[in-house]
């Protein structure tokens, strides 16, 4: 039975692409079963000249009710947002923080909204992985416009407490996990045009410097000494210097053992990439929490990771493999994980149930009601 809350989610939603957009869409789908939910999406995440990728939009379609959008970079569009807030009698506004520039603009909307409306921020990463001038001041402005900040890891909570005032209510949850379905490996091999005689390890998602792909590539040179039929799949659009990584692969002489698919991956094709992977590798140098970790657990895939930041709060020696951020340790742990016949997949199933979207959505409503 629905309660009478009237929640507005402001932020990127499909057809805008990216993990934040997908996160907001799944939030909407789950929250609308519990209360009245409205959506105001951004027309674009970034001005075109600042966007590092090929396109800001997905090809897939999603079903929304109560959906509108606006240009967050056009101050005149803010009147439209405030009008919708008033007309729909919104009592709670949820915005998502991942970028201080966008969040600064969310802070303006929060301040123009009625004081009686609760302002909630979902904090994905506190400060950006690639810092820039004024990012700290912009973040402070946004945080000061909130009544409630909801973090997705202890790592983010600790970072946030060093920045915000004591008056802000900080509630810690987790990155929710979707129950994903694997498909037949042979079918996936055929669709992806790969060789069934090889084993595959997967580095998935947007490629950025802080994710440590350079370390994984170097580790591959060691791994293939014992695993000549092993291929590293790098699947995701490059948001950093691709030429640097190509040069590294060539210098190491391991071109035959690495396949790069430099594109944004969406829809059911994701299921095929995870279905053929023996392991998912996350060699991150830093991390708040990771959507790729949640995605991998959703597919019940073994993860090898450096365990930095929020990733290490979820993945440990009982449900994955932790390595140090060096070639010797990483190659050793990956090799062990490839040959580990005693891994307990039941621990991944338990994580899926514990950190489900249904539980997450109920906790969001509970937090809003209690603060």
Summarize this, please?
The protein has 371 residues and is an alpha/beta fold. Helices cover 37% and strands 17% of the residues. Strand 1, helix 1 and strand 2 form a beta-alpha-beta unit.
Primary descriptors:
371 residues, 6-stranded parallel beta sheet, Rossmann fold, 13 strands, single chain, 7-stranded parallel beta sheet, 2 domains, alpha/beta
CATH architecture of the largest domain: 3-Layer(aba) Sandwich
Strand order of the largest sheet: 3-2-1-4-5-6-7
Total number of β-strand segments?
A: 13
CATH class descriptor name of the largest domain: Alpha Beta
Which stretches of 5+ consecutive residues score pLDDT under 50? none
If you had to describe this structure to a student in words, what would you say it looks like?
With 371 residues, this protein is α/β, with parallel strands linked by helices. It folds into two domains: 6-176 and 356-370, Rossmann fold, CATH 3.40.50; 185-353, 3-Layer(aba) Sandwich (Rossmann fold). 37% of the residues lie in helices and 17% in strands. It is built from 14 helices and 13 strands. The strands form two sheets. Strands 3-2-1-4-5-6-7 form a seven-stranded parallel β-sheet, with helices on both faces. Helix 1 (19-31) crosses helix 14 (357-370) and helix 7 (213-223) crosses helix 12 (327-338). The model has no long low-confidence stretch (mean pLDDT 91).
């Amino acid at each position: 039975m629905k309660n009478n809350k009237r929640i507005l989610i402001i932020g990127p939603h499909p057809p805008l692409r990216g993990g934040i957009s997908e996160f907001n869409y799944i939030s909407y789908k789950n929250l609308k079963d519990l209360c009245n939910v409205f959506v105001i999406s951004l027309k674009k995440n970034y001005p075109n000249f600042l966007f590092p990728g090929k396109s800001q939009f997905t090809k897939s379609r999603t079903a929304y009710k109560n959906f509108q959008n606006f240009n967050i970079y056009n101050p005149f569009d803010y009147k439209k947002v405030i009008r919708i807030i008033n007309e729909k009698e919104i009592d709670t506004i949820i915005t998502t923080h991942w970028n201080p520039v966008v969040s600064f603009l969310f802070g303006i909307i929060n301040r123009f909204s009625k004081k009686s409306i609760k302002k909630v921020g979902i904090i994905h990463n506190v400060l950006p992985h690639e810092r820039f001038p004024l990012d700290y001041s912009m973040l402070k402005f946004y945080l000061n416009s909130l009544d409630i900040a909801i973090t997705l890891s202890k790592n983010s909570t600790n970072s946030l407490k060093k920045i915000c005032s004591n008056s802000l209510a900080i509630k810690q949850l987790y990155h929710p996990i979707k129950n994903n379905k694997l498909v037949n490996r042979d079918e996936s091999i055929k669709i992806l045009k790969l060789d069934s005689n090889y084993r595959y390890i997967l580095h998935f998602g947007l490629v950025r410097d802080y994710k440590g792909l350079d370390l994984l590539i170097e580790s591959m040179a060691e791994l293939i000494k014992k695993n000549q039929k092993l291929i590293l799949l790098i699947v995701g659009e490059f948001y950093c210097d691709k030429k640097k990584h190509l040069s590294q692969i060539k210098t190491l002489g391991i071109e035959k053992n690495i396949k790069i698919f430099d594109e944004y991956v969406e829809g059911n094709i994701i299921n095929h990439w995870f279905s053929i992977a023996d392991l998912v590798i996350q060699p991150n140098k830093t991390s708040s929490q990771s959507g790729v970790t949640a995605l991998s657990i959703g597919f019940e895939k073994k993860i090898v990771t450096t365990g930095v930041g929020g990733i290490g709060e979820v993945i440990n020696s009982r449900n994955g493999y932790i390595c140090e951020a060096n070639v010797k340790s990483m190659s050793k742990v990956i090799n062990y994980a490839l040959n580990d016949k005693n891994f307990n997949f039941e621990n991944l199933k338990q994580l899926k149930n514990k950190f489900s979207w249904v539980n997450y959505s109920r906790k969001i409503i509970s937090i809003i009601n209690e603060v």
